[in-house]
Structures
1.
Amino acid sequence: MRVSLFVTCLVDQLRPEVGLATAELLERAGCSVEFDPRQTCCGQPAFNSGYRSEARAVARTLIEALEGAEAVVTPSGSCCAMTRRYRELFAGEPEWRARGEALAAKTFELAAFLVDRLEVTALGARVAQRVSWHDSCHGLRELGLRAAPRALLARVAGLELVEAGLREECCGFGGTFAVKHDAISVAMADRKIDELESLGIDVVTGADLSCLMQLGGRLERRGSRIRALHFAELIAGGLPALAAAAEEPAR
Amino acid sequence: MSARDSILSRIRDGLRGVEAPPLPAPDPVPGGPGELAAFRALAESVGVEFHDTLASALGDARSVAVSDAPEVAAAVDRLAAADGGAGGRSFFDGWSDRAALLEADAGITTAQYGVAETGTLLLIGDDERHRLVSLLPPLHVALLRRDRILPTLGAALAALRREDPAAMSRVTTFVTGPSRTADIELQLVLGVHGPRALRVVLTDPPAAANP
Amino acid sequence: MIHGLKAREFDRLSREALGDDIQRGAIGKATDLIRGRRGAAVARLPEWEELRERARAVKAHTLARLDHYLLQFVERAEAAGVVVHWASDATDATEIITGLVAEAGERPIVKAKSMVTEEIGLNHALEARGLRPVETDLGEWIQQLAGEPPSHIIVPAIHKTQAQIARLFAEQLGSAEDASAEELTAIARRILRQEFADAAIGISGVNFAVAETGSFLLLENEGNIRLTTSLPRLHLAVMGIEKLVPRLSDLEVFLRLLPRSGTGQHLTSYQSIFTGPAPGRGAAPRRGRGGGPGGAPPPARRHRRRALVGDELRRSSLQCIRCGACLNVCPVYRQIGGHAYGWVYPGPIGAVLTPQLAGIHEAKALPLASSLGGACEEGCPVKIALPEVLRDLGREAGEAQGEAPGGEGFGCGRWAWFMRTPRRYRWALRLARLGFPLGKRLGPFRRWAEQRELPRPAARSFRDQWKERSR
């Protein structure tokens, strides 16, 4: 299957490794992966600030860049969920509304795409760590993203999934909220981190870089040993390198 | 402009050109009686006790207020006539003597209906003066005919409704368990303002009582 | 001037609240308990989602024909013997009520918990006339003793521990310092019984009003509303105009939703439905119920209410049935409690209602005091799109702040311009990278970096690396 990556602006600029890992996982699952450099952003930052016409302007860019693809895959639950809002965002513009809906219909969050669409869970990775999954608000509530990532983690050799009681609690990011009300935002992160530390885990993972930046930034400041990693990065990091795998039998 | 006119004109200005979405059709009200066992289970789940006799329901209450329902008077008469009599209890009209009512140990009323869905008693105010008798004493004993169980809250509302609103009961109280509060650290405490205990005595319809 | 409005001070109030570990502990424990109970109650009702949709639809229809149903309700209520007063704003409402109280001889007043009377500052207005309204809901009474407004819609003293309440009672009433919840409740019952016995006037709110019959309904657990509406000779019910439903049968869905959402009960202990004044005791007939529809906004904000009614999204805020469910699931409320929101309505619904009722200039920080995670919308029994309204108000707040369309610091307009073509996008990122060392010490980045590490831009973006990879 030919898959077009929507890497999201955050991954593009802050953690390109997540984009590369996404491509790698998709290739392992048998997809051929493309990237269209015309893409910028889904429009979510403007949308969340109530600036709908600005959000539309940006969304059009994404629609134009990716509407020709067979399937679009993104390593972000909230950006994927944003495409589901195009229908309502373009309520007054029938043509764009149809194009936005068409894009949304073939846009998938990475874990959901692998598990629900390709029915692939085993990627051959090995990560001997204690890992906790953070259910990001948008992925959880707007996409119902809950089982798919866990199915992937369950097939990672050596990985121990430790469920946190507060797994579905908001991390405190919330876009501008994180800076406008920074003290509250940090208190929200701390509540989760206190629990994560009590669980003795190595890694907190999830499907949204923004939440992981929030948790990771606070973990680092607290001097915690827990790392915050996108699940694509976590799993891809445990894959035997293709070349190494090929050489292995010879050893 | 009067307050009435200014409020209405503000609303109308705001709603100009607004098309109202449709009002959902009412849910069909289930016909037929509700299940007594379900009523009882739900009521018990919120602390209601069921007693076979009025004497047992009254326990050691001494000063007992009664409502003006004839069924209550009849039940009290039967109690007095039975073996052991009134057991040293005194009964008085709770609806006419408020000072005594404030000091009473128990109040006896009927309930016009029970609701199986929720274990609720319906006290319909036009049929009986039971508002204060059921509320002020620490124990409320309600007599409920076992053939007066409605299946759902919807059926209860349908039973109250009259085409002519003027014919509606002035006050109807739905009672589901005793008075309760959880305002201090969410700890359940019974009897904060109303009765601490609610006991129900199920009675037979008159025909069945005298076959 | 709105009594008690402090929403402008949100930043200070929320920071203070964050420092109060006892309060955070109490709220966390209580909201967890309610959430657990609510979850269990909802799980037992397979048709929950259908009920939410029905309730939403009933409210949306009613609000879109509010003038019609309001008139129908008033006409039927008057036919049943209720005396209806119309109040066009808070001052109007408190003046009418103080007038009625004066007419009744300025006798003792008992009050049942009512959000709309909080909204209009009724107690303050009555006290200004030398009257002493006594709150009779246990939680409200605790708050009145403490001289504080309620901090939760359903559990007014949710932020206090039992030990704090015991100390408060000890100071004010001379009871034991270590009294249990049971003992504290018994003290309240004893004192308030006397207040009820003496009261000549009972003031309540209204939970639902039925247009077709002119009836109204009140829900409670304690029995204080039943006492407030039965012992005193005059019952004043204060009702917001948005409380209407068209038909008596419409109450069913709300009776099924509200208790489960509020406390996780399948039904609260008591519901009272009134249609006209209650039958009088003895020879002295009871006076009609007064009280106005229109627990309305303060005078300066009339146009806001109109905007609230006229705009579909904003109108949906009026669907609220005051169950408090959005507070219990809100991760922000959990941290800062109710008082930080600076007015009557805390939590997500407060962040939605306060800017609309009091004016955006009075509450610019509130719409942004949400991480927009959507737990509130998911928990709302009448499906108010709370994050959607917050986003909309957030923009209004930004513009009120004097932001050019685009927003302070963030600059949505400028941002969108850059994001519109890949070329501009690359420029913007190049600029951002250059500016990063400076940005760390400025504006939004500084506030991020005060307590968190700031993510560093990657040395090479994904798109640059991809170009190479594909080669």
2.
Amino acid sequence: MSDLILLIPELILLGTTLALLLVARRIRTTPVAVVGTVLAALAAALASGWLLWRGAGPEFGETAFGGMIIVDGYSQFFKILIAASLALVALVSVRSIDGEQIPRAEYHALLLLASTGMMLSVSAVDLLTLYLGLELTTICSYILVGITVQRPRSNEAAIKYFLIASFASALLLYGISLTYGVTGGTGFADIASALSELNLADHGLAEHALAEHGLGSHPLLVVAMGLMVAGLAFKIAAVPFHAWAPDAYQGASTPVAAFLAAGSKAAGLAALGRLSLVAFGAQAQVFSVLLAGLAALSIVVGSVIALAQTDMKRLLAYSSIAHVGYALLGLVAGTSEGTSTTMIYAFFYVFMTLGAFCVVIALGERGENLDGYRGLAAQRPLMAALMLLFLLSLTGIPPTAGFVAKFGVILSAVTAGQMALAVLAVVFSVVSAFVYMRVAVFMFMKEPQEAAPSHLPVAVFAALGVAALVTLIGGIFPGILVSWAVSPQ
Amino acid sequence: MTAYPVLSAMTFLPLVGAVLILLLGGERRARWIALATTVATLAVSTPLYLYFDKTSSALQFVESAEWIPAWNIAYGMGVDGISLPFIFLAALLSVLCVSASWTAIRTRQREFYAVLLVAETAMLGLFSASNLFLFFMFWELMVVPLFLLIGVWGSSRRVYAAVKFLLFTLAGSVLMLVGIIALYHTCGTLDFKALALARQSLGIEQQAWLFAAFLAAFAVKVPMFPVHTWLPNAHTEAPTAGSVILAGILLKMGAYGFLRVSLPILPDAVQLFLEPMLAISAVAIVYGAYVTLVQKDIKRLIAFSSVSHMGFVTLGIFTLNRSGVEGAILQMINHGIISAALFLCVGMIYERTHTREIKDYGGVGKIAPVYSILLALFCLAAAGFPGLNSFVGEFLIIGSAFQTRTWLGAMAVWGVALGTIYLLWLYYRVVMGETNPGLAGLELELNLREVATLAPLALLALCLGLYPDLVLSYLRVPVAELLAGVAP
């Protein structure tokens, strides 16, 4: 029973999913489904917060179900984030559902179920639970990407996404099985203790090799780690495993793209963070090399290719690739301080990216193309100002949340002695500044060509407001969040 | 002493004004709110000058509060004798910017004044910040309003100029960010005073890298040769208020950074980089002056003259002796006053003629005597005419340049000579001679508002020329302490 209490947030989402599916035929208006989803998300967030309060602060940790699941500050931090991103995505979906004839109940049920999967994966302390959580998310995501069945682009995107992501899942699973073969366990704690013994044994055998290369002498283990990192890198769309993301984002309905870019990435980062810190903490050097490579490539490729985009969804897709690179900087250090900077990055990233997507959605058809932003400031000053805020935050300019986030991860890279990586990261943030400010130039410095966009539905406006508040207040008063971002023990 | 947080009140008052403008709406009401806010800000800052203790080198009116406790970063404000004059200058120029934009800005006035006020907050905050984190926040906050000021309300090639400005300044400042983070990692604090004490933990090599990182940001802002190329575009395309802020305050941010960060925290690296810094400054003075000579556009001419004049400032700072550094700071204030005044003069006449080409002018003196007298005053002041403000600053800098290296002094004198030529030649071509037929029928004489805009600057130019101690008295103690720390 006490095990179930720890899973209340997941159970709330799951319950709502089932309820929505049961009454699917009776839901005739969109607001009912939206309100249901948002309420469930809020309840889940509250429940996560309550568990945190019950555990007396972010430093607690309680395992359940025979060590398959842990509820600690780290998991609750991400659960609240996932719930928030779910609520925001549900709010902004209002217009797309009506406009693109998406089945309401099923759509929201899938969102809820995917979020349940994310919550499970951030709580997982066993490779199998981790895999199950991630798969639940991914399978729901395939359907969400293809849910606008009338649009060929959407179908194409769903198939591409399905093929690549199932390949990635296979890699992950292969990595898991190899790890099991080497260490004899799938629990993070088992792996960690087996690895530290392995390391000790190695020290006796080949002290020099270990000191020089920092690799566990078991080649299978290195392959296993490589496969798992590759599988997770697919999920968070880090270069060179990113190719699906732009196509999937572009083909999917915009709220779905936002969902993939926000919560789903945060969950993947959380899983990667716990895996590298808790399970493979003893192999931090291997992980560090792998993650540093992913981070550098993602930052460079994401920023540079974003330069050439004129489709806003593709632009944001490449931007999110670059941001994953920045977020990974925190994990490179392999320390708990570093991981907590990644947590902060993920948190703020979710809100600023969702904010930018909200504006894209709010502008409708016009918002999907860069040209549509011409003269927006003259027609809708508030919306242009909010978009500017999100763009500044994505660039990392104070006093927005994006700056605090960037400050944290670069601090972590510098602390880890990765000076070159830190310099690379900031230099490419200038490249990305060009990407984002190009949108600002279109909004503020060009004459409008199209008629002013229609007024916003209240739901979209609410989502926009929440994202803007977090982006601004998070940038000015980041203190509380920074102190709550406690990495897993 | 006052108990309430003067510095924070002064810094964030303009931000409140900006929010008010956006909330209350009304295109015509906006400028009144902006004027009221800037005047109020100037008024709020007066206790600073009245109660400032000139005999102390410590930060005064200090405020501190917890901010990000997990990272050991605090909110900290405080001023010393070096930052105080800049606060006054920023507060004053903001009032004048509003006044100068009164009729010049006709589109999107609400947004314009809101952006201007945000820029004022950034300027005041930058000079009040007592730790590097806050300093960097305001440093970056300054970029966005100016990007918008240039890009939205500028003239024909404004987008190019705005983007170039943004990319140049960001490229510099991100390297500073790495520098700040590295400094924080090594010293564990970002407070200016604490950093100056903790500098022993920095090796010479580390200091050199940090100096280079900060140099990237400061050099772009000053701007030093050869990263000055954004400046002519930005100054030329910006609306008058934008040019005034750029020339009056933004260019000082870089030099202020040298005084706040490089000299006190990285003294060994300063000694290491001394020769190249002096050389670049001398090149900027002479090269800037020659390029200024051939300009055909008045605004561009004044913009390039800033390169030369800011060369004097960096030259003075890196002579590392008392009169040089004091002269440099005084000269920063002087340049802020004079170049702002010159840009205002150009803006006022441009509003009537809609041309900035020198060849379209001529004989303005016959039509607009008051304007011509004021312009003469500012041109002479910029040229370093005795009795006006620049003379004192340049004199101090050149004197200490001769003490350091004879050839530096010679270069500086050459720069002054060229300065006199381009300024007087400009004045000659615009004001003297036959009236240009293109100007016939235009009402060029200044109105009362414009005279009132220029009058404070004219008065300051005169007062500082005759009694430079107005500024120098603030500098004596902090500069002495600063140099005591740098001495090898």
